[in-house]
Amino acid sequence: MEMPVNRFKRGLASGKAQAGCWLSLGSPAAAEICASAGFDWMMIDMEHAPNDAPQVHQQLQAVAPYDTSAIVRPPWNDTVVIKRLLDLGVQTLLIPYVETAEEARRAVAATRYPPKGVRGVSTNTRANRFARVTDYFAKVEQELCVIVQIESRAGVDNLEAIAAVEGIDALFIGPQDLAAGFGHLGNPGHPEMVEIIGNSITRIRKTGKAAGILAYAEADAKKWMAHGAAFVAVTSDQSILAKESSATAARYR
Predict the structure, then answer these.
(1) N or C: which end of the chain has fewer CB atoms below 10 A?
(2) pLDDT digit string, tens, across residues 84-120
(3) Residues identified as active-site
(4) What is the DSSP annotation of 226-252?
(5) Which CATH superfamily hosts domain 7-250?
């Protein structure tokens, strides 16, 4: 059996902007509905959503038949959690709240087998199609994509050093936490933040790494794509449900 190809990573290399949907409901049904809509990628969130490994497993299965790529954000830069996600077949990870090059190196090490890293070895997992991908160990690294999230002052200050870490494929701007860190809690659209975010995307691109961001407002999403963001989360299952349910109910009041 052939090694699964990481289409998201191939998309980054192509330079074409990719639009994604955040999955926050912990629902395989919602994941499948959104996956079949035509988004380039889906983000299964474990940091701010009621997702644990079994729920992630179910959502990976729900998304798998569709022409979209699954990304998972673990709750923290945790070697054990990352190991479990990799064994579930996750090929792209978004590691939250990375502030230093050392933290970035730790994230990469969690995805690599010894001697390059510290990933535990299991020879029969969903990742290698239950031992049917016989050359998994030889090919796994080339199909892994490690994204780190920049969402603090320190992360912005250390951006180039973080991007220079071998094995880091992309950097993702977390606008809400970043705004909070700069004194604009709940207001990532503040002029100071717009300037900081724009400069950060430019700096990321200059390092040769791909830049990503979350931007649910269509105007913002298109603005950051035009600015060079290679992947943008443009909506979420939770946001769609909340907005559409409110809009529908309002029409009958």
Answers:
(1) C
(2) 999 999 999 999 999 999 999 999 999 999 999 999 9
(3) 48
(4) HHT-SEEEEEEHHHHHHHHHHHHHHTT
(5) Phosphoenolpyruvate-binding domains (3.20.20.60)
